[in-house]
Amino acid sequence: MRRIRSLVLSMLALLCLSACTGKESGAKAAAQIAEKYSGALLEAHLEMTADYGERVYVFTAEYSGSAGEGKITILAPSNIAGVSARIEDGGAKLEYDGVELNTGRMTNGEVSPMNATTGLMAAWSESGGAQCSRETLGGTKCLRLESPLDDDTGQTTWFEESTLLPLRSEIISAGRAVLVITFANAAVR
To answer: What is the average pLDDT value for the chain, to the nearest integer?
Structure first.
């Protein structure tokens, strides 16, 4: 009887310790992501799907930037390929040879496909309010980071666990993903 009681108490203690370790490791992982992206420059190939409810647009782009500013160049669709924009203070205006790409607002905040990556980097570089957990995405071990972007909008990003490079981000507004970004060839400097 003593052995059973001792075994049960030991199992309960281990269960409590593992729960605490899970929360602590999530906070630690969020802090590691924040440290990696604070002041960093991200370069990546982006596949973006913007869902405006009645309209859905798919963009392919190259991005280079930080949490404060960046440059995005559209590769597809072909009718706007080559359009570039400099993103500063969360805003961007795209012009190329008389053609203007106005994607509009996607949420009540200031998120659009053109400034989303810069906004995501700002969220990644702050661990306050972020929740982090381990998850598998397409067979890859990931850290899943969730955090608010503003009062109405949040983000979820999956980072490859060993490199902390982004694989996929979703910007959520009113309970649905309004923008999905898939990252390829990402590098952080």
So the answer is: 81
CB-based contacts of 53, cutoff 8 Å, min separation 6: none
The number of beta carbons lying within 10 Å of the beta carbon of residue 145 is: 26
Helix (H) or strand (E) holding 23: helix 2-37
Domain 2-188, what architecture?
Clam (2.50)
Task: Please name which of 131, 112, 99 lies closest in space to residue 179, comparing C-alpha atoms.
Answer: 112
pLDDT top residue among 12 and 124: 124
* Average of per-residue pLDDT across 61-83: 92
Q: CA 51 to CA 44: how far, in whole Å? A: 21
3-state secondary structure of 37: helix
- Assess contact for 164 and 36: CB atoms under 8 A: yes
Q: Contact, 108 vs 153, CB < 8 A?
A: yes
Burial of 50 (0-12, 13-18, 19+ CB in 10 A): buried
Give the pTM: 0.81
